[in-house]
């Protein structure tokens, strides 16, 4: 079941985070997050669990374009041409987070429009782009359009990010 179809709650997001932690422990992996519209929610869900520091490297909250550039190395040209909510930007965010984290084996990046404002015909409220990067693999991006209010969209985005990490680690 995808996050779009899922009935979710804070508990389901936490359960997904716990599955990510368990999988990382199985493979001796580490995760790092690069978040925009979720504002650190995915990292907060991962670090909800005691002992999560054994597989959670950290997280970057890069809400502004300047932070995406300065902290994660997203090129200004990418942001100007494609915008912050795009495959190109989240791919660079995922690569930047992984490069900045010595122990991380997988990263996930999230950038979207959680609303209630800020949407457009081309990029509606609920549009969220994701990317995962692995030290020994390609960067993969994914797009979802979630529904509901701001809180719902952010929670669905965190849940989907965990599903993508689990797919990359399967």
The total number of structural domains is 1
- Beta percentage is 15-25%
Distance between the termini: 16 Å
Q: How confident overall, as mean pLDDT?
A: 94
Whole-angstrom Rg = 15 Å
Largest sheet: 5 strands, mixed
CATH superfamily: CinA-like
**Helix percentage:** 40-55%
Report the structural category.
alpha/beta
Number of strands: 5
Write the CATH fold name.
Answer: Maf protein
What's the overall geometry?
globular
CATH architectural designation: Alpha-Beta Complex
Task: Give me the side-by-side strand order of the main sheet.
Answer: 2-1-3-4-5
* Helix and strand pattern: HEHEHHHEEEH
Total of DSSP H or I helical runs spanning 4+ residues:
6
Uncertain segments? 1-7
**Which CATH class is shown?**
Alpha Beta
Describe this structure in words.
With 170 residues, the protein is of the alpha/beta class. It has one domain: CinA-like (Maf protein, Alpha-Beta Complex). It is 42% helix and 19% strand. It has 6 helices and 5 strands, in the order αβαβαααβββα. A 5-stranded mixed beta sheet has the order 2-1-3-4-5, sandwiched between helices. A hairpin with a 4-residue loop joins strand 4 (127-134) and strand 5. It is globular.
């Amino acid at each position: 079941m995808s996050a779009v179809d899922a009935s979710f709650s804070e508990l389901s997001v936490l359960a997904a985070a716990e599955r990510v932690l368990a999988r990382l422990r199985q493979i001796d992996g580490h995760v790092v997050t690069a978040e925009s519209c979720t504002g650190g929610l995915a990292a907060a869900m991962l670090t909800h669990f005691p002992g999560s520091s054994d597989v959670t490297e950290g997280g970057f909250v890069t809400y502004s374009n300047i932070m995406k550039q300065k902290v994660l190395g997203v090129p200004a040209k990418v942001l100007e041409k494609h915008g912050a909510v795009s495959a190109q930007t989240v791919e660079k965010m995922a690569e930047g987070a992984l490069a900045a984290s010595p122990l991380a084996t997988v990263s996930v990046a999230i950038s979207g429009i959680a609303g209630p404002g800020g949407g457009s015909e081309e990029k509606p409220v609920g549009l969220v782009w994701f990317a995962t990067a692995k030290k020994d693999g390609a960067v993969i991006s994914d797009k979802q359009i979630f529904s509901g209010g701001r809180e719902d969209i952010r929670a669905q985005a965190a849940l989907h990010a965990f599903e993508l990490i689990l797919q990359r680690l399967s």
